[in-house]
Design a protein that fits this description.
The longest helix has about 45 residues, at about 40-85. It is built from 8 helices and 5 strands, in the order αααβααββαβαβα. A 5-stranded mixed sheet has the order 2-3-1-4-5, sandwiched between helices. By secondary structure, the protein is an alpha+beta fold. α1 (about 1-35) runs antiparallel to α2 (about 40-85) and α5 packs across α6. The protein folds into 2 domains: about 1-85, no CATH class; about 95-245, Alpha-Beta Plaits, CATH 3.30.70. This is diguanylate cyclase. Its EC number is 2.7.7.65. Pfam families: GGDEF (PF00990). Keywords: Membrane, Transmembrane, Transmembrane helix.
């Protein structure tokens, strides 16, 4: 309803602009011709009437055409923008959109929790049940993640079976609670292949918070934590623990 009202306003606005432009141009041309070729009052009235009526009549279809083309161009631009920032398979924001959002938080100096999620042994799903089943599994995980995070969070597919979650203003404890909820939901998911075969899924999650000193690799800590979760047996959550100053000093020595 709101979009229809907006389109109607654009039609009226565009038509009015075109009508005013055509009318002004037509009147100007008529007056110039009359200045060089004087005529009687009847012809002058007819010429001025035509100079007003014809542009007004013509402006309606022209206004509709211009507005429809403008709307079509706006829709195409929106589609291109969506395709440039979203993953084609899951329709989640893509890697570019995710890191752009992270960079904006860093520039603004705002806190956020980070989750780096990887589906466990996903190659075996593709090998055992086919890549079409793997694609459906990724879609199922994408839906689960999108539904299982706070409304203000950003969930993105970073590539392959890896996903990222940006939790604005979340503490490390809040990020851990969110990660555990997602892990348990995936473990309880009754996912089956299109042919009906049961395909148990699990995920490992690395957790960290945004740190300005980690630029330009803001997921470095979460990536270390994810590696630890995999090493510890998968289907688990791991929190990144930055090295203490003493540990860094010993390493440097």
């Amino acid at each position: 309803m709101a979009s229809d009202l907006l389109i109607n306003r654009r039609v009226v606005k565009n038509t009015a602009i075109i009508a005013a432009t055509l009318t002004a141009g037509s009147l100007l041309c008529t007056l110039i011709v009359m200045a060089f070729q004087p005529s009687n009052g009847e012809n002058i009235a007819l010429a001025l009437s035509l100079a007003l009526v014809i542009p007004l009549v013509c402006s309606i279809p022209v206004g509709l055409y211009v507005t429809s083309q403008g709307e079509r161009l706006a829709q195409l631009n929106a589609l291109l923008e969506h395709e440039a920032t979203h993953d084609a398979l899951t329709d989640l924001p893509n890697r570019r959109a995710f890191f752009d959002a992270v960079e904006r938080r860093l520039i603004a100096g705002k806190d956020a929790g980070l989750l780096l999620i990887d589906a466990d042994r996903f190659k075996s799903v593709n090998d055992s049940h086919g890549h079409h089943t793997g694609d459906e599994a990724l879609k199922a995980l994408a839906r689960l993640f999108a539904d299982g995070v706070p409304q203000e969070a950003l969930v993105a597919r970073l590539g392959g079976e890896e996903f990222g979650v940006l939790l604005p203003d979340a503490t490390l404890a809040e990020a851990r609670d969110c990660a555990e909820r997602l892990r348990k939901r995936v473990a309880a998911l009754d996912f089956r292949s299109p042919e009906g075969a049961l395909c148990p899924l699990s995920i490992s999650i690395g957790i960290d918070v945004l740190r300005n000193e980690d630029r330009p690799f803001p997921l470095k800590g979460a990536d270390h934590a994810l590696y630890a979760a995999k090493q510890d047996g998968r289907n688990r959550v791991s929190i990144y623990a930055p090295p203490t100053s003493s540990a860094r000093d010993e390493k440097a020595a």
